[in-house]
Design goal:
The chain is 37% helix and 11% strand. The protein is an alpha/beta fold. It is globular and about 55 Å long.
Length: 178
């Protein structure tokens, strides 16, 4: 079995394993799985690679400067050749920042859902501008159809999402300038 995964710490917020399991099922990809590997530090990578020889690749949630030398050394020690890499600067704003707290307030007022916010690790458009985060439209329990053939959204959810975004625009427009 080919194994892929996410390494870093903490990983409790990540829904990557569920996302990839659903993606593999939906696309008929067999013989692959995606798991979370919470490491106490990057120095634990060689042990992980030794214990998981079927590991084909992974995403990293650590700072590049903190892990690049250790990743390179672990690859070489495991007999792997690095044939390419992609690095994207992280995008993370704590829930307590004015931007995120304003968006959370609007979402929670509209839905009654007080669950903690979820972070995604994708290549979001939000990385292109300063002080921007990705926001909406997937609701808990709804089918995941984005970036799939026949991508769609229920009409009621589309209207609800538009109302939330409109309220968010008003809320953000009234935040004090920094």
């Amino acid at each position: 079995m080919k194994r892929y995964g996410l390494i870093g710490r903490p990983l409790g917020h990540s829904f990557s394993a569920g996302y990839f399991a659903a993606k593999f099922r939906r696309e008929g990809i067999t013989g692959c799985d995606y798991a979370l590997y919470e490491l106490p530090s990057i120095e634990a990578l060689p042990e992980l690679l030794g214990a998981q020889p079927e590991l084909q690749g992974f995403n990293v949630t650590m700072e590049r400067a903190d892990c690049q030398p250790a990743v390179q050394a672990a690859f070489e020690a495991a007999g792997w050749a690095l044939d390419g890499q992609v690095h994207k600067e992280k995008l993370y704003y704590p829930a307590e920042t004015p931007l995120v707290s304003a968006l959370l307030e609007v979402y929670r007022d509209a839905t009654g859902d007080n669950a903690p916010p979820k972070c995604i690790g994708g290549g979001t458009y939000a990385k292109m501008l300063p002080n921007v985060v990705a926001f909406g439209p997937l609701f808990a329990g709804d089918p995941v159809t984005e970036h799939q053939p026949d991508e769609c959204i229920d009409l009621e959810r589309l209207v609800q999402n538009a109302q939330i975004i409109a309220n968010a625009i008003v809320k953000l427009a009234n935040l004090p300038l920094e």
